[in-house]
């Protein structure tokens, strides 16, 4: 129990730093755009684009991306409904959250981060030279979720692990 309290305390401290101490007008403008790279619309658009490009290795990329996203999304929803963790802006009165982004589901784990890391991992396995770019973009999605007051760092971390492992399983099986 002491270990869990320590993690939760660390979680809130890191959250407050990213959500409040890093706050500036340029991030206020850009983070809402970056956060959408992990959203359903973007993920589905990527899958549709890959299906449309289906030829050669794009057939395998499309298949692996769709399966990794679907599998990880199912896991995220099961975990969210099991843990029922309220979003930070509901618990921490000082949390900054943009009204247009307020969500009603649970916080743990971050589905946007899971999706972006899942896609980044699949793409990195097929195009390793671009792996740093893919993972930087996925990391920015995760950080944006914290910056915008929607997730704690542990939500993002576990979401990243789920996305990464899901993609690896799909790729290597």
Question: What does it look like?
Answer:
It comes from Desulfuribacillus alkaliarsenatis. It is found in: Cell membrane. InterPro entries: PAP2/HPO (IPR000326), PAP2/HPO_sf (IPR036938). It is a multi-pass membrane protein. Pfam families: PAP2 (PF01569). With 173 residues, the chain is mainly alpha-helical. It has a single domain (2-172), classed as Vanadium-containing Chloroperoxidase, domain 1 (Up-down Bundle). It contains eight helices and no strands. It has helices at 2-21, 25-35, 40-52, 57-83, 88-91, 111-126, 131-147, 153-172. α3 (40-52) packs antiparallel against α4, α6 packs antiparallel against α7 (131-147) and α6 packs parallel to α8. The chain is globular.
The CATH H-level homologous superfamily: Phosphatidic acid phosphatase type 2/haloperoxidase
- Kindly give the count of domains: 1
The CATH C-level class name: Mainly Alpha
Strand content: under 5%
Count of β-strands: 0
Query: What percent of the residues sit in helical stretches (DSSP H or I)?
Result: over 70%
Give the key terms.
mainly alpha, Vanadium-containing Chloroperoxidase, domain 1, 8 helices, 74% helix
Summarize it.
Helices cover 74% and strands 0% of the residues.
How do the helices and strands line up, and which of them pair or pack?
Blueprint: H1 2-21, H2 25-35, H3 40-52, H4 57-83, H5 88-91, H6 111-126, H7 131-147, H8 153-172
Helix pairs in contact: 2-7, 3-4, 4-6, 4-8, 6-7, 6-8, 7-8
């Amino acid at each position: 129990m002491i270990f869990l309290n320590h993690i939760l305390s660390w979680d809130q401290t890191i959250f407050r730093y990213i959500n409040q101490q890093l706050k500036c007008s340029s991030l206020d403008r850009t983070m809402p755009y970056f956060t959408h790279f992990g959203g359903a619309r973007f993920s589905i658009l990527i899958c549709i684009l890959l299906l449309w490009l289906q030829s050669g290795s794009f057939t395998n990329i499309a298949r692996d991306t769709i399966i990794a996203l679907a599998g990880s999304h199912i896991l995220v929803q099961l975990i969210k409904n099991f843990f029922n963790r309220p979003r930070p802006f509901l618990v921490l009165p000082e949390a900054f959250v943009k009204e247009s982004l307020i969500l009603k589901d649970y916080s743990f784990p971050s589905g946007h981060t899971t999706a972006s890391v899942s896609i980044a991992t699949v793409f990195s396995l097929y195009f390793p030279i671009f792996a740093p770019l893919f993972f930087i973009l996925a990391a920015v999605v995760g950080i944006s979720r914290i910056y915008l007051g929607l997730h704690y760092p542990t939500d993002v971390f576990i979401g990243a692990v789920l996305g990464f492992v899901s993609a690896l399983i799909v790729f290597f099986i």
